[in-house]
């Protein structure tokens, strides 16, 4: 078993929008749901255009709100994790390797932040 502890940095951009932490391959997820590119488009007012249903995100990942922390226990066959916004903008993919063993569980501490905003669509990013 693997455990990931994700802390979402408190930022003003996208502060009201939850993100979803999604275990597994980002490429497989994109292929399954027909997503092209990491960032969703936006309208003339700069608001992101939804390209994936919230139900899909809830079924595949765990919500994390601004300034909060979540803990996910994953099967050993999960080797990566990424994040998505409500509109379907995707973060970078983090490969899970070299974690710390705490009480016999391989544990990873990840920091999720927000890039973009104001002049561009904001999106999640693992530091």
3D structure, described in words:
Strands 1, 4, 7, 8 and 9 form a 5-stranded mixed beta sheet that branches. A 4-stranded antiparallel beta sheet has the order 3-2-5-6, with helices on one face. The protein has one domain (2-126): Immunoglobulin-like. It has helices at 26-33, 54-60; strands at residues 2-8, 19-23, 62-64, 69-74, 80-85, 94-95, 100-102, 105-117, 120-126. By secondary structure, the protein is mainly β.
Condensed summary:
The chain has 127 residues and is mainly β.
Strand tally, please? 9
Rounded radius of gyration (Å): 14 Å
What is the CATH class designation?
Mainly Beta
Oligomer status: single chain
The best one-word shape is globular
For the record, the CATH architecture stands as: Sandwich
The third-level CATH topology is Immunoglobulin-like
Beta-strand content bin: 35-45%
Helix and strand element order:
EEHHEEEEEEE
Helix/strand-derived class? mainly beta
Give the total of domains.
Answer: 1
Which regions are unreliable across 5 or more consecutive residues at pLDDT < 50? none
Distance between the termini: 23 Å
Overall mean pLDDT: 90
* Major sheet attributes: 5 strands, mixed
How many helices does DSSP assign? 2
Instruction: Give the fraction of residues assigned to helices.
Output: 10-25%
């Amino acid at each position: 078993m693997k455990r990931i502890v994700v802390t979402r940095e408190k930022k003003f951009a996208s502060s009201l929008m939850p993100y979803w932490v999604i275990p597994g391959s980002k490429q497989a997820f994109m292929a399954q749901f027909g997503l092209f590119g990491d960032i969703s488009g936006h309208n003339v007012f700069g608001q992101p255009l939804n390209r994936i249903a919230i139900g899909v995100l809830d079924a595949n990942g765990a919500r994390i709100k601004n300034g909060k922390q979540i803990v996910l226990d994953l099967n050993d066959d999960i080797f990566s994790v990424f994040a998505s916004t409500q509109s379907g903008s995707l973060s970078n993919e983090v490969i899970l390797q070299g974690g710390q063993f705490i009480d016999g569980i391989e544990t990873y501490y990840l920091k999720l932040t927000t890039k973009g905003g104001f002049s561009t669509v904001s999106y999640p990013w693992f530091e």
